[in-house]
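#dry-run=false #mode=assembly
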Amino acid sequence: MSILVVGSVALDRIETPFGKVDRTLGGAATYFAAAASLFHPVRLVAVIGDDFPEDRLEFLRRRGVDLGGLEREPGESFFWAGRYDYDLNSRDTLETRLGVFADFDPAIPASFRDSEWVFLANIDPDLQLQVLDQVASPGFVACDTMNYWIEGKRDSLVELLGRVDCLMINDSEARELSGDYNLTRAARWIRERGPRIVVVKKGEHGALLFTETHTFFAPGYPLEEVFDPTGAGDAFAGGFLGWLAYTGSVDEDELRRAMIFGSATGSLVCERMGLDRLVDLEVDEVYGRVREFRELTAFDHPVAPVHG
Amino acid sequence: MSILVVGSVALDRIETPFGKVDRTLGGAATYFAAAASLFHPVRLVAVIGDDFPEDRLEFLRRRGVDLGGLEREPGESFFWAGRYDYDLNSRDTLETRLGVFADFDPAIPASFRDSEWVFLANIDPDLQLQVLDQVASPGFVACDTMNYWIEGKRDSLVELLGRVDCLMINDSEARELSGDYNLTRAARWIRERGPRIVVVKKGEHGALLFTETHTFFAPGYPLEEVFDPTGAGDAFAGGFLGWLAYTGSVDEDELRRAMIFGSATGSLVCERMGLDRLVDLEVDEVYGRVREFRELTAFDHPVAPVHG
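#status=ok
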């Protein structure tokens, strides 16, 4: 049973202190699909303009991504330009041109409607709801969002929360959505509105998983060279959901592993500009990084001395 | 073999959105001793003024802290006042009055000079060097510092690095000291100047341990209620060094455990105002928190599928 992803496929201009690329392959759905397809077949629904160099998506097809839901419309493709400072933690958006994405009205092809796993990348929550209406009976739905929708489409977003299993969200967005600075309480606020799983992404500081019964923390991998964090969050989501779909389980053990596979994939993406690292990435490299994560946090738990 | 700690014993005024305390027990050496003495005997060297309510230190004595190096001088005790915002991550120092601490010239009592474990809390690096000159042959020396000394006493600090086994430092200070934003490279820069172990404290985002052969990460514990983070870093250092001294080892396994015992102790301190949580803290509670840390990060590492 495939993973359905709906979101943006874009062209990006990225400037970091270490390099600059223009009209490089970008978009949340692209990063997600590139990561998730390392583990499981993916079906992609998105819209591109007639300026889009479609051959750039060939690597996705080779990796088992079904592009049958990729619409091509007259006009310009979604374009985003951003610049990172030396610390690579804060970024300025220099330019956003929605192009054909402004009228994106996702139509799920009939052959995609039986998808078991669904990832609603960051788009208008009304469109995310529309997508869900078109999927027959998804077993597991995860979604992302952003401050723009939290502020402008709060009601739709809260309605969406009631229909998803998992919300994946940045720390600042979790705080804004819940109105609570404390992430543990913010996650509970969100869970009370629907999702039984909340993943809070903290960038270089790792990610937290909250469920009713446990909390799990995946650290940020201490990379010696970070070139470009663009797309790391979406690659995280791809590794996370890709792993769950591969195992066919969302029990506690697999959720913990999924957090680490997501972190591993997300950290690898940062090693090169844009999506470059994902294009040739082998799944063995992800397993290798997962082993490094294990080394990073493993300790033997000592037994408390018995008092006399 | 006892742990020797040299540093400040102070009175603090702390304001957080959740409460306010005035002339409460504070100081880096106090927090360190209160934490480390849960695991191992401690010897404390510090100076207090004639205004200091010495009975407040009685709990340390009961817990095996030798206060034989506590000098009482005419004048005011070191006083610090700080205020935390709602996010509890950034704090403003409202007032610092050094008092008798301005002329602190640590004299290590003869009976303390055979100390095996030494923690040089955050004081003038020239004084830290002076302390080392007075200890016969310490087996393990750790030190802390701050931006004030990095900027004002860089040469002394670099000399000190050549004489310690372990530097414990905040992330922002590690960056300032090394001139490198990347913490992995910053830690290597520091290790190349002496300490074979570097611990970088990142507050609520956890702490990293760097040695020649491995990197270990201890997360910040996701507390639902944080009342006051004052002293958490020094309590971390106390738990860290206390654990190592208790086991008598600094091998990789014990260093990893020490990071978790430090994190556990540091996180517990944040649950009440000032030092309150440490006064009655039982070592079993720390072991309990260590178990929670294990739950927080444990995952089963899957084996990569074998390709045909």
